Amino acid sequence: MRRTLVVGNWKMHGSFADNADLLAAISSQATRFPEVESAVCAPFPYLAQVRELLAGTPVKWGAQNSSEHVAGAYTGEVSPAMLREFGCHYVIVGHSERRTLHHETDALVGAKAVAVLSNGMTPIVCVGETLDEREAGHTAQVVTRQLDAIIAALGADALARVVIAYEPIWAIGTGRSASPEQAQAVHALIRQRLAGVDAGLADDIRILYGGSLKPGNAGALFAQPDIDGGLVGGASLVAADFVAIIMAGQSAQSA
Ligand code: PGA
């Protein structure tokens, strides 16, 4: 049985004061939902604060990006070895905002996933199509291409240690989430592709849904057989909403 995972992606939001309130509320509530694994991915400057406030709680933490290099002349970059020193458990890799705004290619996303894994952390690798691609009937083709790049970069053994996040770009920050059926169809496709590499691996790997996840839609999405939790943007900045999504994860896990 795959353990439900709910991860907050704060994006470029936060302040010392806001983070302290948010983390206190989340970590005190998370103990009520022991069957769900939860984590927050904070901006780099707040990782020390997040580590201090979450150490000893059930909530894990991570980063939203990493360099594919471990050290060197890469001004402005942050290395996976540094993220490891801050106790990061997860690193989001290939978020659509990185792919679109920072021109990250499938190959670069693969290299980042390798770097994160080889530094002892778990990459959460994002895939997903644009609205144009969906309307043109290209969703399967786009998601398969993105996934195949990860499979090629990692190989079967390393692949067993990643989390995949399906985030349709048209659903991110728009208030328009994929329907449970739409999301399930793509999650099933992803799992089927992974089964082509290794059937056991496909059974075990967690595939998260992301894109306008809210307390009101999380239950129906998490009830789908191939949806193993969520990557939550906007709602992860509101403690009550994030906790309600974790609670939906617990209900799905026990159902
Ligand atoms: P959203 O963002 O929940 O605000 O749509 C999700 C994400 O980008 O990870």
Structure commentary:
- The mean pLDDT is 97.
- The chain has an eight-stranded parallel beta barrel with strand order 1-2-3-4-5-6-7-8, surrounded by seven helices.
- By secondary structure, it is of the alpha/beta class.
- α5 packs parallel to α7 (139-159).
- 48% of the residues lie in helices and 15% in strands.
- The chain has one domain: Alpha-Beta Barrel (TIM Barrel).
- It has helices spanning 16-30, 47-54, 80-85, 96-101, 106-118, 131-135, 139-159, 180-197, 199-204, 215-222, 239-254; strands at residues 5-9, 37-41, 59-63, 90-93, 122-127, 163-166, 206-210, 229-232.
- The structure holds 2-phosphoglycolic acid (PGA).
- 2-phosphoglycolic acid binds next to β8.
List strands and helices in order, with pairings.
Blueprint: E1 5-9, H1 16-30, E2 37-41, H2 47-54, E3 59-63, H3 80-85, E4 90-93, H4 96-101, H5 106-118, E5 122-127, H6 131-135, H7 139-159, E6 163-166, H8 180-197, H9 199-204, E7 206-210, H10 215-222, E8 229-232, H11 239-254
Parallel strand pairs: 1-2, 1-8, 2-3, 3-4, 4-5, 5-6, 6-7, 7-8
The site of 2-phosphoglycolic acid has 13 residues, from strand 8.
